[in-house]
Design goal:
4 domains, 36 strands, alpha+beta, six-stranded mixed beta sheet, tt1808, chain A, globular, nine-stranded mixed beta sheet, Rossmann fold, 836 residues
Length: 836
Amino acid sequence: MAKKEQITITDYISGIEIPATPEETEAVQIFSRQLVEDYGYPVTHIQTRPQHRVKVRPSDTKKEYPVDIAVFSGSLKMDETLYIIVECKKKNRKDGRTQLENYLTLSSAYLGVWFNGEERLFIRKFVKSNGEVYFEEIPNIPKYKQRIEDIGQFKRSDLKPTHNLKAIFKSIRNHLAANTVGATRDEVLAQQLINIIFCKIYDEKYTAPDKIVRFRAGIDEKPQEVEARILDLFSEVKTNSPEVIDSEDKITLDTKSLMFIVGELQNYSLMESERDVIADAFETFIGHALKGGQGQFFTPRNVVKMIVDIIQPTESDKIIDPACGSGGFLIEALRYVWHKTNQKYTKLGWNDIEITKKKIEIATKNFRGIDKDYFLSKVAKAYMNLVGDGTTGIFCEDSLENPKNWRSEAKTKIELGTFDVLLTNPPFGDKIKVKGEDKLKQFELAHNWQLKENIYSKGKLKSERPPQILFIERCMQLLKNNGRMAMVLPEGTFGNPSDRYIWNYILQNSQIEAIISMPSDTFQPHTHFKTSVMVLRKGKPKVSDYPIFMSIPATCGHNKNGKEIYKLNNDGSFIFDENNNPIIDDEIAFVADQYQEFMNGKLNTKSHLGFSLNFSQIKNWIFIPDYYDPELRQEIDDLNNTDKFEVKTIGNLLKDKELQIKRGNEIGSQFYGKGEIPFIRTSDIVNWELKIDPIKCVPEEIYEQYRKQQDVKENDILFVKDGTFLIGRSAIVTKADEKIIIQSHLLKMRVSKESKITPFYLLYLLNTPIVQKQIEKYTFIQGTISTIGDRVNELSLPIHKDLNKIKEISDEVKSIIDTKRILKERIDNLINNSKV
């Protein structure tokens, strides 16, 4: 099996296996494909491997410089027929141009391209009669058999679809960010690109096939002439398509930037390009602008696809996303429905025109989106316009506002209780709250709720509520009876005791069909929130006990830094697919298939990727799949079924009086550093011992207030129960550590003398992999902090039945603790007795 450093790819032009370097994968291969697929050059006219070589200096007889991509005027590849040099090194624009000009000067080629995977530049060489060489930047290079003078002289019928739009959009974005005058923020640049894209689409729609398009930039045209044409187009778009461009919208890019964008896009037909290609490219550009301050960010494509594949919307379904953001859910649902539509009507013998008309009808009639953010709603309109002409269904409104207060068109096209499918990832976060009595009084969940004798009763209206809670109710209101909803929510909502009134509302109004726990890195690097996806059907279930699908995908295809991760063999080498590409490690991609197995009654109920619970098996209103992980449960059962272990929970030990547990206290930071008594916090529990921080020591009188209550003694176990990454850490108190105060986020565990286990054996048990796994699964996010809460009592401990084994392990742990204590004392003595 190949190791990491041996990854290869097949060169697009030559078919030779070459190293998969970033230069090759991000630039050379991408532009090679564009030369063939977009510009129409025959593969026989292009050379990549072996590389064609050119002179570095006039005296260079060996032709020392290898050209990344050489394009020739014919199939005969020689110095005299060299036409275009493409340079793909990772340099900045200035250095890349300088080097490219040097190579052009000493070769017969007179067109050059610099492309580093991020930006690209096109230049033309001129030679004066006296032999002097000079260069000019041009909008693009000619297509195959096109004269350079013909650049920008396109009839509508000349425009062709492209499969490489992502690279073009990426180049546009990076060029604008580096060179645009007066606008550098990604949101502003994205808004401008959207306006220009609308001009491009409008020009394609309303130019006859045999007429010259207006969205063009000729080789000898002045930038001001190009700008004037685009501004005229934009004025027509505003007049004729007010649903996508507002009257106050303007194109504010400088003339050179506008010329650059037109030059990049003019060869292609966006309307005829594949929708997946357009969506992927658009998302690449817009993604830079979509990390907002109100919890707004892209829902990752794999999560969106998983949700749509689970819901399986149909052509007759009315579909809405009331927090549509940039339109990701709507686009993926439209893709899904269109694919099914195409299959259905092709089988019925419909022609392409009839099918296309049907698709546009579906997009316009059945798809709706709302977002209160003007920019995001504009992005969604552009997205839908590019992909499906469904722009008339996107509205800039506040979904949580009383619908009576929406603008007339939104009120007409979006009514409560009329939707079959709802897909959404509403805004959530600690800092955003919904306020205002008029808005809040629409919602049951905006009130206080009290539980008495297992019945919730509604109290007074609260002054503010987190938006995600109100979105649950608004989404329920938008659905028809029997309508289906999939919603992304913070995972804490699925298990926090304080949120149980929410589940009371959900269960009173719907049937839970599925809950999927997303990997912790899913929304990284943009936000640290861990989320789950809830799928439900509106309406009371027909039976009181019914199965619920659950899934715990472990990987999402990238790490916390957003970098792709790959499947590995045990030796650390990559696992490759049949095309010798490393396979991305993304378990989210398999969840929808598992759900369909569940629906078909064929689910393997012991896999973390897909298992089911009956509603009656839900404990303490906990709807977090991790809590019910069947693989972990099986592992515990397997231990219990051996002759070696007896599995007992901490709760069992408490009940049998073999163990006592107390929690610590908060004393107030005003006492820190005012005394000599250590105040032990979660971060002070390190490697089974206490790390004393003198900065947090407190006065003797504060210690006396808590001494009897906390009653810390030698061999007590301190266990971290709240925090972020430290939950489950533990340490044992030594004789020297008894005079301390412990923080409220710590539990003090004391093993009774009558117990057959010892404190040292308990310390060992708490740190075994099986118990640490449980700690991770039973830890929930509650507000701004993670906690294991009372679920610590549910931790199953595999206790050896052999008392000699318990003694052996206890003695070994005690020996380690004693050794650490002795070494610490030796360090202290060395330092304290130093005469320096």
